[in-house]
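ok so i was messing around last nite and threw this chain in just to see what happens. nothing serious, just curious
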Amino acid sequence: MRAFLAVYRRALARLRGERIFLLAAANLLVAGLQFLDPLLFGRVIGLLTAGGGWVDLLPVLAVWGCVGLLGIGANISAALQADRLAHRQRLAAMGDLFAHALTLSPRFHGEAPSGRLMKIMLGGADALAWLWLSFFRDQLATFVAFLLLLPLSLLLNWRLGLVLVGLVVVFCAATLTVIRKTEAGQQRAQRWHVELAGTAQDTLANVTLVQSFTRLAAETRLFGSLVERVIAHQFPVLNWWALANVLTRAASTIAVIAMVATGSWLH
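result:
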């Protein structure tokens, strides 16, 4: 878990020159609007249940519509700025690694195949871009909701708020379990991914030399053995991530059912 947090810390530290406070403000707005949306929906249901007419409903519906439009605009703005930041910083990270590799000694380049370096540069830059993108698109808004909006739900209705807190604790525990189970396994699988890509690129870059020494069968067998090792290390990790994916998609459904069931029982 410490290594997981250290990766986030180092990745976000690269954004010191970016105006990330604008993205943070957009995520804060998105989180607040997500909190208002169900409140306004509940207000509409309450007015309909009490027999309210159009005169009572129109102001609430107008506010609800404005909140929805503002939420759409905030989501689009946050997603667009996150995309631009991720692509810009991805290219900057590739440039930094390229410049650093040029300064390394000939001994290092003799021991490290160029294909492995290319795999590390491309794979690492893509992983950083995906981390930044997912953080500023989804995770930051969720974190804000957890720290600020979850306590507000306890103030509005502490009984239903406790149900929500309990569900959050359960899903956080399940996610942490998946991370602990997959962290070491994914690192081993990634090393074999790098080895596979490096071997393939180096062989294709020297295909004429390989053909002249009639090593086609040997290189094919080596590639096949690396593929088997990648599968052997990657498939157990995929099983856990499949479970996490199902839990993530089911979280909203379970939360709604639990809240409605608890509310009906209290009523």
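not much to say yet. The two ends are 42 Å apart (CA to CA).
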